[in-house]
Amino acid sequence: MSEQVSGMANIEKLNLNDIEVVEDFDPLMIDFGKYKGKTIVELSKTDFSYCKWLSSQPSVSDEIKEYINNNVNVNDYIMRWGRHKGKTVSYIKANDTKYMKWLLANQYVIEKCPKLLEALKVV
Known about the structure:
It is built from 8 helices and no strands. The chain has helices at 2-13, 40-46, 48-55, 62-71, 89-95, 97-105, 107-112, 114-122. The longest helix has 12 residues, at 2-13. The chain is elongated and about 80 Å long. The chain starts with a helix and ends with a helix.
């Protein structure tokens, strides 16, 4: 019984000002690399190629992989150049129809970018 009292006495002596408060844990938060501190929800709107890479990494949490699998089409064509570099064709279609039309009519795309052209026609 005296051991319990002693333990309680120690608890009462604790200085709560010295305790570091930990922010709420977010299982969708990236905790490494260039996007440390960002959530996968944010990244899924801006950097599809990084999401695709993340989904293949063995050290990434199951929650992040599940979010990517359910919410990001990792098979969508990712632009490698131009003003929408790093974005998917689906993103461009939803957010910049003028650019989408330009891509479809662009002679360089028609002649030199068969995968991009196919992706533009599919979405």
